[in-house]
Structure formats: C-alpha cells, structure tokens
Task: structure prediction
Amino acid sequence: MFRNIKRSVRFLLRKEKELYYFGKYAAWEAAEKESEKYGAAYSSDNILERVSEATQKVRSGEGVYEQDGIVFYEENNNYELIAALLLVYSRRKSLRVLDFGGALGSTYFRYRKLLEPCECEWTIIEQKHYVEYGKSHVPEINFLYDVAECEKEADVILLSSVLGYLDDTYVQFKRLLEQKVEYVIIDELAFSPDDVETVMLQHVPARIYSAVYPVRLLSLTGFKQFIENNGYEIVWDWDYRFGNIPVCEGMKVRDTVEKGFLLRLQK
Result:
C-alpha cells in the first residue's frame, strides 16, 4: 500500500510531463467537447507536421524509427508483433499488410529491415490529411481513405494503438472483421483497470506533442466476447512490453491493462 502511495505521489509531481488518462464521460461526444478546451487534437495540422518531419528523417536513414512524432535512434523492437507478422507470412506465403490507422508508416519503417525477406506490401488507411501527405511524400506505402478502396486481398489487418481512439470503436472494428481477412493483429490496446468500458481523456505532454483527446478504455472480457461473436479466435495474446499508460483519478493512479492479440478467422 505504501509503495502505491509513493508511486502516486511521484507521478503527480511529474504529471504535466507524463502520458495519462483522466476524467470519465458518459459518451464520446461529451469527452470530445471537453477536449476542445485544451486545444490540439490528433487531427490537428501541427501533429501531422511533426509526424511527417520525423517520418522523413527515418526514411532518409537519419533515425531508426518514429513513434508519435518522436525520432528514435536505437532499435527497440516489439518482438511479439514481429513474431505475429512472420507467422502470417509463414502460413500465407505472402505479407500484404492492411495497416488501419498506421499514420505515415510508423510500424512499416520501424520493422522494414526485419521484414525485408518477406517482400511485404504495406497499405495504410488513415485520416484524409495523412493520406494526402502520404500519397505525395511516402512512396514506399500505398495510402487509402477507406477499406472499400482495397483492390488486393490482404493477408493481415494490423491495428496498432488505434481502436481506443475511434468514436465508434466496435462499429469500425466489425466493418474490418467483415472483410474476412484470415489474420488480424491488434497491438497496444488499452483496457480499463475495472474491466468496464470507459470513455476518458488522454493527456499528451509537450515532449511528444501537446494534446488532449478522447480515448475509450475497453473491457477485456467484452472485447474477447466481441471477437468470438464475429467469427474470429485468439491464436495468442501478449502484454505490451513497453509499459502501460496510467489512469489518474484525483490523487489516485492506477495502471491500465495493455495487450496485443493475433486473431485468426474461424473455419
């Protein structure tokens, strides 16, 4: 108990420099309206500018990978995600990835050298301003506005740190699962500490980019049931190895549960 109190105090002293979730809202619209008081959201041009600058540094070899607009200069691999992609390749004998919400290719550029023997084809579905930039400035990747534009069958759908940031999470997720792609990989998905779906706000510190926007922390039990109800099974799941974003409730700080999954269409 004392350790938890000590940890909460330490976090609160550094609060403005940390990523965290806060507040509770009855609906996404209420959280979105509240977030407007804080300024920048994910759709803001200043965030695209930062992400695009970081992406170009990685493309040119100046950096190793980009995440949330920050350039990293040393490898830091998510081996569960790589293993999932390689398993798909071993089963499908090709690796056509449909990366939903993949920004300007964060995952592609991070692991392109490791995946080079697979000769993977990477397609990203994103917001309009990301797609327009990507089509003009990131030729390695195919950018689309909507899943309906896909002309080739994908081997795997990738959703990395995206489902919780959709106002209609399960509507969008169901639409993707209805494509009947054999494999689906989900990574960096946050679940509430209480196993109850909750709409909150996420605070993003200036060291990444100053922003506050809505987020949906899902129920792990409900999420697994949704997967089963939509004709998929969990091949395996893993705990996200790079740490959880905490929930800040006044003076109390609690960890979310962040996980990844490899799903397969049931025969």
The chain has a mean pLDDT of 90. Residues 19-265 form a domain with the Rossmann fold fold (CATH 3.40.50.150).
